[in-house]
Every structure is written in C-alpha cells, then in structure tokens.
C-alpha cells in the first residue's frame, strides 16, 4: 500500500484511477484496506475542492417528496390546506416555524436546512 496525500489535481486523478482498480477488492485484503483509506482521502479532497451546496428548503422538500413518492396533498397535514401547500411549493409564501416542525417530523428533514432563507416569486 503506497498512499500519499492528495495535493494536486494530478494526484486526485491518480487516486481515482487507483480506487477504480481496487474498488471491488475482497474485504480483509490489503487492497480492500487501501480502498478504504483512499476513499477517505479522496472524500476530503472533494469536500474541499468540489463542495456541493445544500438545496434550498423548497428544493429539499420537493426532493424528499419525490424520494417518498408523495404528492402535494400528502403534505396538507404538515403545512395546512391544499392551497397553502401549493403556495409554499411555488414560493409564494414562506415556511413558518410550525410548518418547519411538522415537515421535520413528516419528511425527516433537518430543521437547520428548512430554516435557510429562500427567494419568493411574485
């Protein structure tokens, strides 16, 4: 196992190539251990150089609805009324604290994500 820190894009590409080769290594082998360590190093490099922004609250709700195969009507109990759900999802109205609490329970979304600011459309 010859693992070194990833400092450049070339190091990153080399690490990805090596991980691709050893990715399916049998658990418990030196190659498997190398893949585990290499995966951690690559992940840290990607977090620093290729950060992924969290979706805004409305996009997060829509994503979770899709994952859970929910329709707007399924959020009536959490948001309050079909027209209110539509206003929220179409960015006509902001989420309230009670809605955030209910959506946290219903969709298992982080309150920290749901309280982020987002733009309304007019």
Just give the CATH class of the largest domain. Mainly Alpha
What structural class do you assign from the helix and strand content?
mainly alpha
Q: Count every helix, treating DSSP H or I runs of 4 or more residues as helices.
A: 7
Beta-strand fraction estimate: under 5%
Tell me roughly what share of residues is in helical segments. 55-70%
CATH architecture of the largest domain: Orthogonal Bundle
CATH superfamily of the largest domain: lambda repressor-like DNA-binding domains
What do these coordinates show?
The chain has helices at 9-22, 30-49, 57-67, 76-79, 82-89, 97-107, 111-114. Helix 1 (9-22) packs antiparallel against helix 2 (30-49). With 122 residues, the chain is mostly helical. 59% of the residues lie in helices and 0% in strands. The chain folds into 2 domains: 9-49; 57-114, 434 Repressor (Amino-terminal Domain) (Orthogonal Bundle). The protein is elongated and about 60 Å long.
Lay out the secondary structure.
Elements: H1 9-22, H2 30-49, H3 57-67, H4 76-79, H5 82-89, H6 97-107, H7 111-114
Helix pairs in contact: 1-2
Describe the structure concisely for a colleague.
This protein has helices spanning 9-22, 30-49, 57-67, 76-79, 82-89, 97-107, 111-114. The protein has 122 residues and is mainly alpha-helical.
């Amino acid at each position: 196992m010859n693992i070194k820190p990833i400092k450049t894009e070339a190091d990153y590409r080399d690490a990805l190539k090596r991980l691709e080769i050893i990715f399916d290594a049998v658990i418990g082998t030196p190659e498997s251990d190398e893949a585990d360590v290499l995966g951690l190093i690559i992940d840290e490099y990607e977090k620093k150089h290729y950060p992924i922004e969290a979706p805004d609250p409305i996009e997060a709700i829509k994503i979770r609805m899709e994952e859970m195969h929910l329709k707007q009507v399924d959020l009536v109990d959490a948001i309050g009324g079909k027209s209110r759900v539509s206003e929220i999802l179409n960015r006509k109205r902001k989420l309230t604290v009670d809605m955030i609490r209910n959506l946290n329970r219903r969709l298992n979304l982080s309150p920290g994500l749901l309280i982020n600011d987002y733009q309304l459309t007019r």
